[in-house]
Amino acid sequence: EDTRSASVCFVHPLHSLVVLRVDPGEGGHAFGKAASFCHGPALEPGDPCEFIGMDPKGRAVASKVQVQSVRMCNFPSHFPPRWRESFLEAIVLADNAMSVNTGVLCDAKGNVKALYAVTTFIQEEESERLGYGIPCQIMQPLLEHFKIPKGLSAPFVVPSLEIGLEPVELSRLARLPAKLRPPAAWVAKLSASSTTALQVRQVMAGGPCDGLACAGDLLVAVEGEVVTSCNVVERRLFEAMGKRPAEARGGTVAVQLVVLRQGKATSAVAHAQLLPSDGTTRFLCWHGLLLRETPRSVREFGAVPGGVHISQTLLGSPGEADGVEGDILVAVNGVPTRTLDEVVGLAHDSTPCRGAASSSGEAPAKSAVPAQERRHLRVETADSSGRRFMRPLEPDPLFWPLLELTQGPAGAWVCEEHRADA
Fold it and tell me: Sorted alphabetically, which SUPFAM superfamilies does this protein's record hold (predicted)?
């Protein structure tokens, strides 16, 4: 057996895919044999395939399986919010009770047609496991990117409309009242390739489609092509990004959409967001509150106020002792904390403290006490439901200074201490 260490190179923001950079072994020998991914037709219900993977004890498992269905799965959300699979038409096997952790689905020639992942969730106070296949067509843009020279060092981004979609039967839409029913022309276009249409389930607040689409709308075309599956939508977004590389370098790419609402078609331009590798590479430990930029999973949960995310409160810290509540740090002494840089700026701030605004709307009063001499801070926070909190916090700079943790390109973490200006 050959064992190697590895580092995480890319974490897919939408799908359960992680790219690892395997360290070279002695003599630079390759790690195992390269897998061959199938570029042919995707797996369909009833197709036989080979499963090769590992069980929870790390033992190799191989068996013949059959595809039961290929459907859009509504993966359960979590609270507190955390990452979940989304925007995927998953492959479901007939024998979904296999006790495995991961694997691949191959054809008779050994070509990989899908990756197999397992997720856990709580249902009726019981922990449940759900296995599903991720079609290799989803991975093609990722594989093509890492084939190019310096692909491992060049950033890879995933375009996203930041909406949730679910299938709805065309026969059901045909039974709607006339003023809500989709136009016959669009029904004919959709029925030519599928028996379902894509219905918007949710729209991320502040996302590319906020104000352009709402729950209940039908997404029927992207970049001029009729869409009836998430896989086609994702492919069209990548194609749009490839056509407009200069625009994509700005973090968004314009995409033409057609949405049906109450029987009327509306054409709109959405600026799809280009999502980098998922995860956090920078933290602040501020008075025992572990802060990071608000992650996508929290913004997906609902509209959140501007601020930084409180991912954890350390035991025995000023934040824990003074009972700071909430999920988002909104402001300190009336100064907004919309980014981590603004939180770092608080440690070097010698400007007077801002008081609370009066009910008449007058400007906040200012305190003559310098930042270094204040005994307490007024901390304003909010939770993911929008409730606001305010607590006084007494700093302890000797034992709880401001620490900044950053992860470099090679994966190593560096800790830097920020001291208040003298």
Answer: PDZ domain-like (SSF50156)
Structure tokens at 314: 């350390």
When mean pLDDT is compared across 97-106, 213-222, 256-265, the lowest value belongs to: 97-106
Q: What is the pTM of this model?
A: 0.83
Q: What is the pLDDT of residue 358?
A: 36
The per-residue pLDDT for 2 is 67
* Domain 158-275: which CATH number of 2.30.40.10, 2.30.42.10, 2.60.120.10, 3.40.50.880: 2.30.42.10
**Stronger pLDDT, 367 or 38, i.e. the higher one:** 38
Burial of 322 (0-12, 13-18, 19+ CB in 10 A): middle
Residue 410's CB is within 10 A of a number of other CB atoms, namely 7
188 in helix, strand or coil? helix
> What is the C-alpha to C-alpha distance for residues 282 and 406, in angstroms, rounded to an integer?
4
Q: Cα(389)–Cα(84) distance, rounded to whole angstroms?
A: 28
Runs of H (alpha helix) within 228-380: 230-243, 245-248, 296-301, 318-321, 340-347
Candidates 388, 390, 362; CA nearest to 377 is: 390
pLDDT at 353 over 70: no
DSSP SS3 for 97: coil
For the chain, give the longest Cα–Cα distance. 77
pLDDT in tens, 71-87: 988 787 777 788 888 88
Beta-bridged to residue 357, according to DSSP, are: none
What contacts 57, CB < 8 A, 6 or more positions away? none
Q: Name residue 169's beta-bridge partners.
A: 196
Residue closest to 268 by CA, chosen among 182, 208, 228, 201:
208
Tokens 């065309």 locate to: 170
Alpha carbon separation from 81 to 176, 211, 385 (Å, rounded): 35, 24, 12
Radius of gyration, alpha carbons of the chain? 25
Residue 368: what pLDDT?
A: 44
CATH topology of domain 6-147: Thrombin, subunit H (2.40.10)
Q: Distance between CA 253 and CA 245 in Å, rounded?
A: 9
Query: What value does the mean pLDDT take over residues 50-74?
Result: 88
Per DSSP, 393 falls in state E
For the stretch 162-200, pLDDT in tens is 999 999 999 999 999 988 999 999 999 999 989 999 999
- Which residue ranges make up each domain of the chain? 6-147, 158-275, 282-418
